[in-house]
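Hi support team,

I'm filing this because I wasn't sure whether my run with iron/sulfur cluster finished correctly. The job status page said complete, but I'd like someone to confirm that the output block is well-formed before I use it downstream. Pasting the exact inputs I used:
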Amino acid sequence: MNIFLETYGCQMNVADSELVRAILVKSGHNLAKSVDDAEVILINACAIRENAYRKIYGRLDAFRPLQRKMKQDQRPFIVGILGCMAQNMKATLFRHPVVNLIVGPDNYRALPSLINKAALPQQGKRKPLEIEANLSEEETYSGITPARFDGVNAWVTVMRGCDNFCTFCVVPYTRGRERSRSKEEIIEEVHDLARQGFKQVTLLGQNVNSYRTDGAAFADLLLAAAEVQGIERVRFTSPHPKDFPEPLLEAIASHPKICKHIHLPLQSGSDRILKLMDRTYTQDEFIRLVEKIRAVIPGVSLTTDLITGFPSETDLDHQETIAAMEAARFNSAYIFKYSERKGTIAARKYSDDVSPEVKTKRIVQLFDLQHEIALELNREKIGQTMTVLIEGESDKRPGIQIGKTDGNMTVMFSETGLAPGEMIQIEMTEASPSVLTGRNLDLTVLSF
Ligand code: SAH
Ligand code: SF4
Ligand code: F3S
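And here is everything the job wrote out:
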Protein backbone atom coordinates (compact mmCIF):
# COMPACT_ATOMS: atom_id res chain seq x y z
CA MET A 1 0.00 0.00 0.00
CA ASN A 2 1.04 3.64 -0.39
CA ILE A 3 1.78 5.10 3.00
CA PHE A 4 2.35 8.71 3.96
CA LEU A 5 3.99 9.40 7.31
CA GLU A 6 3.97 12.77 9.09
CA THR A 7 5.92 13.53 12.24
CA TYR A 8 5.27 15.98 15.09
CA GLY A 9 6.93 16.38 18.49
CA CYS A 10 10.50 16.00 19.66
CA GLN A 11 13.51 14.31 18.10
CA MET A 12 12.49 11.00 19.66
CA ASN A 13 9.45 10.97 17.38
CA VAL A 14 11.57 12.06 14.43
CA ALA A 15 13.96 9.16 15.08
CA ASP A 16 11.07 6.74 15.63
CA SER A 17 9.59 7.75 12.27
CA GLU A 18 12.86 6.58 10.70
CA LEU A 19 12.34 3.20 12.36
CA VAL A 20 8.73 3.11 11.19
CA ARG A 21 9.79 3.84 7.61
CA ALA A 22 12.31 0.99 7.76
CA ILE A 23 9.68 -1.43 9.12
CA LEU A 24 7.12 -0.44 6.46
CA VAL A 25 9.52 -0.67 3.52
CA LYS A 26 10.84 -4.04 4.71
CA SER A 27 7.31 -5.41 4.77
CA GLY A 28 6.75 -4.41 1.14
CA HIS A 29 4.85 -1.11 1.51
CA ASN A 30 5.65 2.04 -0.49
CA LEU A 31 6.26 5.48 0.97
CA ALA A 32 4.01 8.08 -0.66
CA LYS A 33 5.26 11.61 -1.40
CA SER A 34 2.05 13.37 -0.30
CA VAL A 35 -1.29 12.61 1.36
CA ASP A 36 -2.97 12.73 -2.06
CA ASP A 37 -1.04 9.65 -3.23
CA ALA A 38 -1.66 7.74 0.01
CA GLU A 39 -4.06 4.98 1.00
CA VAL A 40 -2.63 5.02 4.51
CA ILE A 41 -1.79 8.21 6.41
CA LEU A 42 0.19 7.75 9.59
CA ILE A 43 0.68 10.63 12.01
CA ASN A 44 3.44 10.20 14.55
CA ALA A 45 2.23 12.68 17.14
CA CYS A 46 3.24 14.24 20.43
CA ALA A 47 1.31 14.53 23.70
CA ILE A 48 3.50 16.87 25.71
CA ARG A 49 1.15 19.88 25.74
CA GLU A 50 -2.47 20.60 24.84
CA ASN A 51 -1.55 22.57 21.70
CA ALA A 52 0.11 19.44 20.28
CA TYR A 53 -3.35 17.84 20.43
CA ARG A 54 -5.10 20.83 18.92
CA LYS A 55 -2.78 20.78 15.94
CA ILE A 56 -3.45 17.09 15.29
CA TYR A 57 -7.27 17.43 15.60
CA GLY A 58 -7.10 20.17 12.96
CA ARG A 59 -5.03 17.94 10.72
CA LEU A 60 -7.46 15.02 11.14
CA ASP A 61 -10.46 17.22 10.26
CA ALA A 62 -8.68 18.13 7.03
CA PHE A 63 -8.64 14.43 6.02
CA ARG A 64 -12.45 14.08 6.01
CA PRO A 65 -13.00 15.11 2.35
CA LEU A 66 -10.18 12.75 1.34
CA GLN A 67 -11.87 9.95 3.30
CA ARG A 68 -15.18 10.58 1.49
CA LYS A 69 -13.48 10.60 -1.90
CA MET A 70 -11.64 7.33 -1.25
CA LYS A 71 -14.92 5.74 -0.13
CA GLN A 72 -16.64 6.84 -3.34
CA ASP A 73 -13.77 5.37 -5.36
CA GLN A 74 -14.05 2.19 -3.22
CA ARG A 75 -10.42 2.42 -2.28
CA PRO A 76 -9.04 1.62 1.17
CA PHE A 77 -8.24 4.62 3.35
CA ILE A 78 -6.60 4.26 6.72
CA VAL A 79 -5.58 7.01 9.10
CA GLY A 80 -3.36 5.97 11.98
CA ILE A 81 -2.02 7.79 15.00
CA LEU A 82 1.39 6.71 16.26
CA GLY A 83 3.77 7.93 18.95
CA CYS A 84 3.18 9.41 22.36
CA MET A 85 -0.24 10.70 21.39
CA ALA A 86 -1.35 7.18 20.40
CA GLN A 87 -0.16 5.80 23.71
CA ASN A 88 -1.97 8.56 25.54
CA MET A 89 -5.12 8.28 23.44
CA LYS A 90 -5.51 4.68 24.39
CA ALA A 91 -5.81 5.80 27.97
CA THR A 92 -8.35 8.51 27.27
CA LEU A 93 -10.27 6.40 24.70
CA PHE A 94 -10.28 9.36 22.41
CA ARG A 95 -11.85 8.76 19.03
CA HIS A 96 -11.87 10.88 15.88
CA PRO A 97 -14.10 9.72 13.00
CA VAL A 98 -11.25 9.41 10.49
CA VAL A 99 -8.90 7.47 12.80
CA ASN A 100 -8.92 3.69 12.50
CA LEU A 101 -5.48 2.74 13.76
CA ILE A 102 -3.67 3.59 17.01
CA VAL A 103 -0.14 2.27 17.57
CA GLY A 104 2.07 3.22 20.53
CA PRO A 105 5.85 3.84 20.49
CA ASP A 106 6.75 0.30 21.61
CA ASN A 107 4.53 -1.48 19.06
CA TYR A 108 5.90 -0.47 15.67
CA ARG A 109 7.02 -3.99 14.78
CA ALA A 110 3.30 -4.88 14.64
CA LEU A 111 2.47 -2.01 12.23
CA PRO A 112 2.50 -4.02 8.95
CA SER A 113 0.05 -6.62 10.26
CA LEU A 114 -2.15 -3.96 11.88
CA ILE A 115 -2.29 -2.02 8.61
CA ASN A 116 -3.29 -5.19 6.75
CA LYS A 117 -6.00 -5.83 9.32
CA ALA A 118 -7.30 -2.26 9.09
CA ALA A 119 -7.37 -2.57 5.27
CA LEU A 120 -9.79 -5.52 5.31
CA PRO A 121 -13.16 -4.63 3.71
CA GLN A 122 -15.45 -2.84 6.12
CA GLN A 123 -18.12 -5.07 7.71
CA GLY A 124 -20.37 -2.83 9.81
CA LYS A 125 -21.34 0.80 9.47
CA ARG A 126 -18.13 2.02 10.99
CA LYS A 127 -14.63 0.62 10.61
CA PRO A 128 -13.31 -1.08 13.75
CA LEU A 129 -10.45 0.66 15.51
CA GLU A 130 -7.19 -1.33 15.56
CA ILE A 131 -5.29 -0.49 18.74
CA GLU A 132 -1.89 -1.70 19.84
CA ALA A 133 -0.42 0.44 22.58
CA ASN A 134 1.35 -1.71 25.12
CA LEU A 135 4.44 -0.33 26.78
CA SER A 136 7.40 -2.69 26.82
CA GLU A 137 10.29 -2.89 29.25
CA GLU A 138 12.63 -4.34 26.62
CA GLU A 139 11.84 -3.01 23.16
CA THR A 140 14.77 -1.02 21.76
CA TYR A 141 14.16 -1.92 18.08
CA SER A 142 17.40 -3.82 18.07
CA GLY A 143 18.23 -5.17 14.61
CA ILE A 144 16.25 -2.50 12.72
CA THR A 145 18.32 0.07 10.84
CA PRO A 146 16.42 3.37 10.69
CA ALA A 147 15.57 4.57 7.16
CA ARG A 148 17.14 8.04 7.27
CA PHE A 149 17.05 10.85 4.76
CA ASP A 150 20.47 12.04 3.61
CA GLY A 151 21.88 14.93 5.55
CA VAL A 152 24.68 16.10 7.77
CA ASN A 153 23.29 14.87 11.08
CA ALA A 154 21.97 11.42 12.01
CA TRP A 155 19.83 10.86 15.12
CA VAL A 156 20.84 7.75 17.03
CA THR A 157 18.45 6.59 19.73
CA VAL A 158 20.57 5.17 22.55
CA MET A 159 17.95 4.77 25.25
CA ARG A 160 14.17 4.85 25.43
CA GLY A 161 11.69 5.82 28.14
CA CYS A 162 11.97 7.83 31.32
CA ASP A 163 11.84 6.88 35.00
CA ASN A 164 11.85 10.40 36.44
CA PHE A 165 8.14 11.15 36.69
CA CYS A 166 8.51 14.92 36.90
CA THR A 167 5.01 15.71 38.10
CA PHE A 168 3.97 17.80 35.07
CA CYS A 169 5.18 15.38 32.42
CA VAL A 170 3.37 12.77 30.37
CA VAL A 171 6.50 11.12 28.90
CA PRO A 172 6.92 8.33 31.51
CA TYR A 173 3.35 7.25 30.66
CA THR A 174 3.73 7.50 26.88
CA ARG A 175 7.20 6.00 26.56
CA GLY A 176 7.44 3.72 29.57
CA ARG A 177 10.45 2.64 31.57
CA GLU A 178 14.07 3.48 30.81
CA ARG A 179 16.03 0.96 28.79
CA SER A 180 19.37 1.31 27.00
CA ARG A 181 20.66 -0.22 23.77
CA SER A 182 23.95 -2.10 23.82
CA LYS A 183 27.02 0.05 23.30
CA GLU A 184 28.36 -2.37 20.66
CA GLU A 185 25.22 -2.10 18.55
CA ILE A 186 25.18 1.71 18.82
CA ILE A 187 28.84 2.09 17.86
CA GLU A 188 28.39 -0.28 14.93
CA GLU A 189 25.53 1.94 13.76
CA VAL A 190 27.74 5.04 14.09
CA HIS A 191 30.41 3.34 11.91
CA ASP A 192 27.75 2.64 9.27
CA LEU A 193 26.60 6.25 9.44
CA ALA A 194 30.16 7.50 8.91
CA ARG A 195 30.48 5.19 5.89
CA GLN A 196 27.22 6.63 4.51
CA GLY A 197 28.71 10.14 4.76
CA PHE A 198 27.04 11.54 7.90
CA LYS A 199 29.39 13.99 9.61
CA GLN A 200 27.51 14.40 12.88
CA VAL A 201 25.61 12.06 15.15
CA THR A 202 23.27 13.16 17.92
CA LEU A 203 22.76 10.55 20.63
CA LEU A 204 19.12 10.63 21.65
CA GLY A 205 17.05 9.69 24.65
CA GLN A 206 14.39 11.30 26.84
CA ASN A 207 16.95 11.07 29.58
CA VAL A 208 20.01 10.47 27.52
CA ASN A 209 22.58 10.79 30.29
CA SER A 210 20.86 8.07 32.32
CA TYR A 211 22.16 5.71 29.62
CA ARG A 212 23.63 2.67 31.33
CA THR A 213 24.39 -0.92 30.39
CA ASP A 214 26.34 -3.60 32.30
CA GLY A 215 29.61 -2.51 30.75
CA ALA A 216 29.15 1.17 29.93
CA ALA A 217 28.07 4.54 31.29
CA PHE A 218 27.03 7.48 29.11
CA ALA A 219 30.54 9.00 29.13
CA ASP A 220 31.99 5.75 27.68
CA LEU A 221 29.39 5.76 24.93
CA LEU A 222 30.05 9.41 24.01
CA LEU A 223 33.82 8.84 23.86
CA ALA A 224 33.41 5.70 21.75
CA ALA A 225 31.12 7.51 19.29
CA ALA A 226 33.60 10.40 19.04
CA GLU A 227 36.38 7.95 18.14
CA VAL A 228 34.57 6.71 15.02
CA GLN A 229 36.54 7.67 11.90
CA GLY A 230 34.66 10.10 9.65
CA ILE A 231 32.37 11.48 12.35
CA GLU A 232 33.34 15.10 13.02
CA ARG A 233 30.84 16.03 15.71
CA VAL A 234 28.96 14.18 18.43
CA ARG A 235 26.02 15.78 20.22
CA PHE A 236 23.44 14.48 22.67
CA THR A 237 19.97 15.40 23.85
CA SER A 238 18.08 15.58 26.18
CA PRO A 239 19.91 15.17 29.47
CA HIS A 240 18.62 15.63 33.02
CA PRO A 241 20.64 17.80 35.45
CA LYS A 242 20.75 14.95 37.97
CA ASP A 243 23.09 12.77 35.85
CA PHE A 244 26.23 14.83 35.28
CA PRO A 245 28.99 12.98 37.10
CA GLU A 246 32.50 14.41 36.77
CA PRO A 247 33.74 11.75 34.28
CA LEU A 248 30.96 12.82 31.90
CA LEU A 249 31.97 16.50 32.08
CA GLU A 250 35.61 15.52 31.64
CA ALA A 251 34.76 13.37 28.63
CA ILE A 252 32.96 16.31 26.99
CA ALA A 253 35.85 18.65 27.81
CA SER A 254 38.56 16.26 26.66
CA HIS A 255 37.42 15.15 23.25
CA PRO A 256 37.57 17.68 20.40
CA LYS A 257 34.77 15.92 18.53
CA ILE A 258 32.26 16.04 21.39
CA CYS A 259 30.41 19.34 21.01
CA LYS A 260 30.70 21.83 23.85
CA HIS A 261 26.97 22.28 24.21
CA ILE A 262 24.75 21.02 27.01
CA HIS A 263 20.98 21.31 27.10
CA LEU A 264 20.24 21.65 30.79
CA PRO A 265 16.51 21.90 31.48
CA LEU A 266 15.88 24.12 34.51
CA GLN A 267 12.02 24.22 34.33
CA SER A 268 11.69 26.70 37.23
CA GLY A 269 13.95 28.79 39.43
CA SER A 270 11.76 28.51 42.52
CA ASP A 271 12.79 25.86 45.04
CA ARG A 272 9.18 25.44 46.11
CA ILE A 273 7.99 24.83 42.53
CA LEU A 274 11.00 22.61 41.74
CA LYS A 275 9.98 20.47 44.68
CA LEU A 276 6.36 20.28 43.50
CA MET A 277 7.71 19.33 40.07
CA ASP A 278 9.93 16.68 41.68
CA ARG A 279 12.96 17.89 39.73
CA THR A 280 15.46 16.73 42.43
CA TYR A 281 17.52 19.97 42.59
CA THR A 282 17.24 23.45 44.08
CA GLN A 283 18.08 26.67 42.25
CA ASP A 284 21.33 26.83 44.16
CA GLU A 285 22.32 23.27 43.22
CA PHE A 286 21.44 23.96 39.58
CA ILE A 287 23.54 27.14 39.47
CA ARG A 288 26.43 25.32 41.13
CA LEU A 289 26.19 22.67 38.42
CA VAL A 290 26.22 25.42 35.77
CA GLU A 291 29.36 26.90 37.37
CA LYS A 292 31.04 23.52 37.53
CA ILE A 293 30.19 22.79 33.88
CA ARG A 294 31.60 26.18 32.84
CA ALA A 295 34.77 25.56 34.86
CA VAL A 296 35.40 22.09 33.42
CA ILE A 297 34.30 22.92 29.84
CA PRO A 298 35.42 26.49 29.05
CA GLY A 299 33.33 28.21 26.35
CA VAL A 300 30.51 25.67 26.66
CA SER A 301 27.08 26.80 25.51
CA LEU A 302 24.14 26.06 27.73
CA THR A 303 20.51 25.92 26.70
CA THR A 304 17.42 25.14 28.74
CA ASP A 305 13.68 24.44 28.99
CA LEU A 306 11.40 26.46 31.25
CA ILE A 307 7.77 26.09 32.28
CA THR A 308 5.85 29.12 33.45
CA GLY A 309 2.57 29.03 35.39
CA PHE A 310 2.96 25.67 37.13
CA PRO A 311 0.12 25.20 39.69
CA SER A 312 0.35 27.66 42.59
CA GLU A 313 3.25 29.63 41.02
CA THR A 314 3.28 33.09 42.60
CA ASP A 315 4.95 36.29 41.45
CA LEU A 316 7.67 35.53 43.95
CA ASP A 317 8.29 32.10 42.39
CA HIS A 318 8.34 33.76 38.96
CA GLN A 319 10.96 36.25 40.24
CA GLU A 320 13.07 33.28 41.31
CA THR A 321 12.96 31.94 37.74
CA ILE A 322 14.10 35.35 36.51
CA ALA A 323 16.93 35.32 39.07
CA ALA A 324 18.01 31.83 37.98
CA MET A 325 18.03 32.86 34.32
CA GLU A 326 20.13 35.91 35.16
CA ALA A 327 22.57 33.73 37.08
CA ALA A 328 22.78 30.91 34.53
CA ARG A 329 22.81 33.09 31.38
CA PHE A 330 21.62 30.46 28.91
CA ASN A 331 22.49 30.80 25.23
CA SER A 332 18.92 29.92 24.38
CA ALA A 333 15.79 28.63 26.06
CA TYR A 334 12.58 26.87 25.12
CA ILE A 335 9.92 28.45 27.29
CA PHE A 336 6.45 26.92 27.70
CA LYS A 337 3.23 27.72 29.52
CA TYR A 338 2.25 24.93 31.89
CA SER A 339 -0.29 22.66 30.22
CA GLU A 340 -2.08 20.17 32.43
CA ARG A 341 -1.78 16.59 31.16
CA LYS A 342 -4.33 13.99 32.25
CA GLY A 343 -2.94 11.21 34.38
CA THR A 344 0.21 13.06 35.51
CA ILE A 345 0.96 13.50 39.19
CA ALA A 346 0.46 17.28 38.94
CA ALA A 347 -2.95 16.82 37.31
CA ARG A 348 -4.00 14.56 40.17
CA LYS A 349 -2.53 16.59 43.02
CA TYR A 350 -2.56 20.26 42.04
CA SER A 351 -5.10 22.51 40.42
CA ASP A 352 -4.09 24.39 37.25
CA ASP A 353 -4.76 27.65 39.03
CA VAL A 354 -2.53 30.21 37.32
CA SER A 355 -4.78 32.12 34.93
CA PRO A 356 -4.06 32.15 31.17
CA GLU A 357 -3.49 35.94 31.41
CA VAL A 358 -0.86 35.55 34.12
CA LYS A 359 0.83 32.72 32.21
CA THR A 360 0.98 34.95 29.13
CA LYS A 361 2.35 37.90 31.09
CA ARG A 362 5.05 35.75 32.68
CA ILE A 363 6.08 33.97 29.50
CA VAL A 364 6.49 37.30 27.72
CA GLN A 365 8.75 38.52 30.53
CA LEU A 366 10.85 35.37 30.29
CA PHE A 367 11.08 35.62 26.49
CA ASP A 368 12.19 39.26 26.74
CA LEU A 369 14.83 38.51 29.35
CA GLN A 370 16.13 35.52 27.40
CA HIS A 371 16.37 37.61 24.21
CA GLU A 372 18.37 40.23 26.05
CA ILE A 373 20.79 37.66 27.52
CA ALA A 374 21.18 35.77 24.22
CA LEU A 375 21.84 38.99 22.34
CA GLU A 376 24.54 40.01 24.84
CA LEU A 377 26.18 36.57 24.64
CA ASN A 378 26.04 36.56 20.84
CA ARG A 379 27.46 40.09 20.58
CA GLU A 380 30.48 38.89 22.55
CA LYS A 381 31.16 36.51 19.64
CA ILE A 382 31.53 39.34 17.08
CA GLY A 383 35.13 39.37 15.84
CA GLN A 384 35.74 35.75 16.88
CA THR A 385 36.54 33.06 14.35
CA MET A 386 34.65 29.80 14.76
CA THR A 387 34.54 26.44 13.05
CA VAL A 388 31.17 26.00 11.39
CA LEU A 389 29.70 22.78 10.03
CA ILE A 390 27.79 23.69 6.86
CA GLU A 391 24.23 22.35 6.93
CA GLY A 392 22.69 23.81 3.77
CA GLU A 393 21.20 26.83 2.07
CA SER A 394 18.91 29.38 3.68
CA ASP A 395 15.29 28.77 2.60
CA LYS A 396 14.46 32.45 2.76
CA ARG A 397 17.64 34.10 1.50
CA PRO A 398 19.11 32.83 -1.74
CA GLY A 399 22.91 32.86 -1.87
CA ILE A 400 23.19 32.43 1.89
CA GLN A 401 24.44 29.24 3.53
CA ILE A 402 23.66 28.11 7.06
CA GLY A 403 25.74 26.14 9.50
CA LYS A 404 26.24 25.45 13.18
CA THR A 405 29.04 26.26 15.58
CA ASP A 406 30.32 23.64 17.97
CA GLY A 407 28.07 25.29 20.59
CA ASN A 408 25.03 24.73 18.30
CA MET A 409 24.59 28.39 17.35
CA THR A 410 23.16 29.01 13.88
CA VAL A 411 25.49 31.00 11.60
CA MET A 412 24.64 32.58 8.23
CA PHE A 413 27.26 33.46 5.62
CA SER A 414 27.54 34.05 1.86
CA GLU A 415 27.60 31.02 -0.41
CA THR A 416 31.01 29.33 -0.13
CA GLY A 417 30.73 26.76 -2.91
CA LEU A 418 31.24 24.07 -0.28
CA ALA A 419 28.75 21.26 0.20
CA PRO A 420 26.80 20.56 3.40
CA GLY A 421 28.93 18.49 5.73
CA GLU A 422 32.11 20.55 5.14
CA MET A 423 33.71 22.50 7.99
CA ILE A 424 34.73 26.10 7.48
CA GLN A 425 36.27 28.95 9.48
CA ILE A 426 33.87 31.88 9.82
CA GLU A 427 34.55 35.27 11.40
CA MET A 428 31.45 36.55 13.19
CA THR A 429 30.36 40.03 12.09
CA GLU A 430 26.80 40.51 13.36
CA ALA A 431 24.57 39.08 16.07
CA SER A 432 20.88 38.71 16.80
CA PRO A 433 19.40 36.80 19.77
CA SER A 434 19.15 33.61 17.71
CA VAL A 435 21.55 33.89 14.76
CA LEU A 436 25.12 34.95 14.12
CA THR A 437 26.18 36.35 10.76
CA GLY A 438 29.73 35.80 9.61
CA ARG A 439 32.34 36.10 6.91
CA ASN A 440 34.03 33.17 5.27
CA LEU A 441 37.75 33.53 6.00
CA ASP A 442 39.01 30.85 3.65
CA LEU A 443 39.35 33.10 0.62
CA THR A 444 41.03 30.36 -1.42
CA VAL A 445 37.67 28.60 -1.43
CA LEU A 446 35.93 31.66 -2.79
CA SER A 447 38.38 31.89 -5.67
CA PHE A 448 37.24 28.71 -7.44
N1 SAH B 1 13.24 14.70 28.92
C1 SAH B 1 13.45 16.02 28.63
C2 SAH B 1 12.32 16.85 28.12
C3 SAH B 1 11.08 16.31 27.69
S1 SAH B 1 9.79 17.29 27.19
C4 SAH B 1 13.94 16.68 29.88
O1 SAH B 1 13.70 16.25 30.97
O2 SAH B 1 14.55 17.68 29.69
C5 SAH B 1 10.47 18.82 26.71
C6 SAH B 1 10.04 19.95 27.57
O3 SAH B 1 8.66 20.15 27.51
C7 SAH B 1 10.32 19.79 29.05
O4 SAH B 1 11.63 20.03 29.38
C8 SAH B 1 9.37 20.81 29.65
O5 SAH B 1 9.97 22.07 29.72
C9 SAH B 1 8.23 20.85 28.64
N2 SAH B 1 7.03 20.23 29.19
C10 SAH B 1 6.85 18.94 29.54
N3 SAH B 1 5.63 18.75 30.06
C11 SAH B 1 5.01 19.95 30.03
C12 SAH B 1 3.72 20.41 30.45
N4 SAH B 1 2.84 19.59 31.00
N5 SAH B 1 3.42 21.72 30.27
C13 SAH B 1 4.32 22.56 29.73
N6 SAH B 1 5.54 22.19 29.33
C14 SAH B 1 5.89 20.90 29.48
FE1 SF4 C 1 9.47 14.33 31.44
FE2 SF4 C 1 11.02 14.74 33.54
FE3 SF4 C 1 11.28 12.51 32.09
FE4 SF4 C 1 12.03 14.85 31.07
S1 SF4 C 1 12.94 13.85 32.86
S2 SF4 C 1 10.84 13.26 30.04
S3 SF4 C 1 10.54 16.26 31.92
S4 SF4 C 1 9.52 13.09 33.33
FE1 F3S D 1 6.16 14.70 22.63
FE2 F3S D 1 6.60 12.20 23.13
FE3 F3S D 1 8.57 13.74 22.50
S1 F3S D 1 5.19 13.50 24.22
S2 F3S D 1 7.97 15.69 23.33
S3 F3S D 1 6.91 13.23 21.17
S4 F3S D 1 8.63 12.05 23.91
